[in-house]
UniProtKB/TrEMBL annotation:
Belongs to the GcvT family. Substrate binds at residue 209. Residues 7-272 form the GCVT N-terminal domain. This is Aminomethyltransferase. The keyword Transferase applies. The gene is gcvT. GO terms for cellular component: cytosol; glycine cleavage complex. Keywords: Aminotransferase, Methyltransferase, Transferase. GO terms for biological process: glycine decarboxylation via glycine cleavage system; methylation. It catalyses: N(6)-[(R)-S(8)-aminomethyldihydrolipoyl]-L-lysyl-[protein] + (6S)-5,6,7,8-tetrahydrofolate = N(6)-[(R)-dihydrolipoyl]-L-lysyl-[protein] + (6R)-5,10-methylene-5,6,7,8-tetrahydrofolate + NH4(+).
Length: 379
């Protein structure tokens, strides 16, 4: 059965085109996906991400448990911070990439991708049973809505939701928001709601992800939309989200990350090496130790081209007419005005500047290996 988010009616009212995404009926676009993409790069976009999962991990051993259950180290995180990481199976294949927030000394929020949320919750629950007392895993995905505001005007939009301070001065909340660091969170009151606001995102721009009880999602969306209208805020669908994340060189589960890839394949070898060096026993340690000394046959790279036609997922990458890789994501870059792609290619062909061809509908088109990300915002 297809699932819908608490904002589904809002999207219909806005005239969205929908697509199935991991079993969810999600807005693909509201009008022009190009206009939505440019809104995020030039002003701001608002996204419904309520299909994402939320798994709460609590208890006096919560931090130690997450250290044992996932690849990164969480017990040393400060309250108010967030961390990007991955969870792997016992053979070191990637189950999901996710963000984890430390809400309190004994309270964490793990945010997996939508289609993987049940699998992540199941793996964490199983590992919690094996870990023992002092930790509880609770799947709260159905109870929490997630809305993102991304773009150079995102901070101004959230600031506008706050009451002005005395004599027009800045409030403590506004000051806290301005000073909020990347991968950190704070609680902000918006439209009378207590909202967890994190300076995180998946677009390559400054922006925020806002967590609220699902029953308040419409109120929060409307409050943000009303304040953002004068600052160029536009509703954005999954099409713009995909083109934005690709320009930023960010992997997408099911494309660059799968149950066939390990952290070493996906350019996350430093995270794996740090776990092996700094942690005791943890899930998949033996499998990662076996992989650590060997270089993967293929690695993830960025490709770009001066010609107009884009490489698409599944296209073959060629060197001298021989197959050396596969495109995992590819499309024209609206910001850069040229095709870009992510691909797994043979290690010998992965050096930036390497000239390759991509088979696009039977024709070999020229691409070059480039440094990631393709797009980097001005700070």
């Amino acid at each position: 059965m297809t699932q819908t988010t608490p904002l589904h009616t809002i999207h219909r009212q806005l005239g969205a085109s929908f697509t199935d995404f991991g079993g969810w009926d999600m807005p693909l676009k509201y009008g022009s996906e190009l206009a939505e993409h440019r809104a995020v790069r030039e002003a701001a976009g608002i996204f419904d991400l309520s299909h994402m999962g939320e798994v709460q991990v609590t208890g006096p051993q919560a931090g130690a448990f997450l250290d044992a259950a996932m690849l990164a180290t969480y017990s040393t995180m400060k309250v108010g911070r967030a961390k990007y990481g991955v969870i792997v199976d016992d053979d070191a294949h990637i189950v999901d990439d996710l963000i984890t927030y430390r809400l309190d000394e004994d309270d964490y929020l793990v945010v997996p991708n939508a289609s993987n949320a049940p699998a992540v919750a199941a793996v964490l629950t199983e590992r919690a049973r094996a870990f023992g007392a002092g930790v509880e895993v609770i799947d709260k995905s159905a109870d929490i809505a997630l809305i993102a505001v991304q773009g150079p005007a995102a901070e101004a939009i959230l600031l506008a939701t706050q009451d002005d301070g005395a004599a027009g001065g800045e409030t403590a909340a506004q000051q806290g928001l301005r000073e909020l660091k990347y991968y950190a969170w704070m609680t902000l009151t918006i439209a009378g709601l207590d909202v967890l606001v994190a300076r995180t995102g998946y677009t390559g721009e400054d922006g925020f992800e806002l967590y609220v009880p699902a029953e308040h999602a419409v109120l929060l969306w409307n409050a943000l939309s009303n304040e953002g209208e004068a600052l160029g805020l536009q509703p954005c669908g999954l099409a713009a989200r995909d083109s934005l994340r690709l320009e930023a060189g960010m992997p997408l589960y099911g494309h660059e990350l799968t149950l066939e890839t390990t952290p070493y394949d996906a350019g996350l070898g430093r995270m794996a090496d740090a776990a092996l060096k700094n942690k005791g026993d943890f899930a998949a340690r033996a499998a990662l130790e076996a992989l650590a000394g060997a270089q993967p046959a293929r690695v993830l790279v960025g490709l770009s081209s001066d010609q107009r036609r884009a490489a698409r997922e599944g296209s073959t990458v060629l060197a001298g007419g021989q197959e050396v890789g596969t495109i995992t994501s590819g499309q024209p870059s609206p910001t850069l005005g040229r095709p870009v792609a992510l691909a797994y290619v043979d290690r010998a062909q992965a050096e930036p500047g390497t000239a390759l061809d991509v088979d696009v509908r039977g024709k070999g088109l020229p691409f070059t290996v480039v440094e990631l990300p393709f797009y980097r915002r001005e700070r």
